[in-house]
């Protein structure tokens, strides 16, 4: 378990496996305060949001007019929308961890992730196997996302799945579909997917995962909304490519 490793040891686990779970990085009471803020912003939806119907992933409503059509998938631009989110994103704990990994000062990307992920019962969709870097544009494919569980996350409520070591594999383009999802119908892909793991997360647990790590998430089969706060970081020497979505918002140096 990662809690038995030093911070440097945790970073090495990330380098080796493409992800690492660090338990209890944020106290439960702070997680509850953040989750309550998110609940307030959902009823009714406030600020920029992404709806399940916008993406139409498997299990999502097919339009805003369909049942569940106004189900929120993400509360966007978390950094700007709430001081509680911002305090976590720029905390000393995150800065120190990221600087140890990148070996330099770091920046938070406001163009990618930077959101409160919500997974609703019934209308929350599943997410196919993919690498986040499929729609990111930086000088180097070396970014790390920080996923904070605000409640318990299990397979039953749509927790993340990861393929260990997949961040280090150079896949041929044909192993992905047109939307750059990893094709489960390809036998060698299916064999790799069979090695995936889904770590159980408790409130305050954090997953650090590389932008090239294959991951997915299922549907929420429980009665409660699942909340997760997600930010992405990179070393300051790894700049977003000008004119791309990755450079669309000013970054936040830590």
Automatic annotation (TrEMBL):
Gene3D superfamilies: q2cbj1_9rhob like domain
Domain of life of the organism encoding this protein: Bacteria
InterPro entries per UniProt: Phytyl_CoA_dOase-like (IPR008775)
Any one GO molecular function term: iron ion binding
SUPFAM superfamilies, A to Z: Clavaminate synthase-like (SSF51197)
Name this protein carries in UniProt: Phytanoyl-CoA hydroxylase
Organism: Mycetohabitans endofungorum
């Amino acid at each position: 378990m990662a809690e038995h490793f030093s911070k440097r040891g945790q970073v090495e686990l990330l380098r080796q496996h493409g992800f690492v779970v660090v338990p209890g990085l944020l106290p439960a009471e702070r997680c509850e305060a953040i989750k309550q803020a998110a609940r307030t912003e959902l009823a009714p939806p406030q600020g920029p949001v992404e709806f399940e119907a916008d993406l139409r992933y498997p299990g999502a409503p097919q339009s805003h007019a369909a049942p569940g059509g106004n189900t929120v998938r993400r509360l966007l631009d978390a950094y700007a929308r709430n001081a509680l989110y911002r305090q976590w994103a720029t905390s000393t704990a995150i800065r120190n961890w990221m600087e140890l990994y990148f070996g330099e000062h770091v920046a938070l990307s406001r163009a990618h992730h930077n959101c409160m992920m919500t997974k609703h019962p019934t209308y929350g969709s599943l997410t196919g196997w993919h690498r986040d870097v499929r729609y990111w544009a930086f000088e180097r494919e070396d970014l790390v996302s920080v996923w904070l569980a605000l409640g318990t996350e299990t397979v039953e409520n749509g927790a993340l799945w990861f393929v260990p070591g997949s961040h280090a594999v150079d896949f041929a383009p044909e192993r992905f579909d047109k939307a750059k999802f990893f094709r489960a119908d390809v036998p060698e892909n299916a064999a790799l997917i069979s090695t995936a793991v889904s770590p159980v997360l408790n409130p305050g647990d954090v997953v650090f995962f590389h932008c090239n790590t294959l991951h997915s998430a299922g549907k929420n089969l429980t009665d409660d909304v699942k909340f997760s706060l997600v930010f992405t970081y990179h070393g300051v020497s790894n700049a977003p490519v000008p004119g791309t979505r990755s450079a669309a918002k000013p970054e936040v140096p830590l």
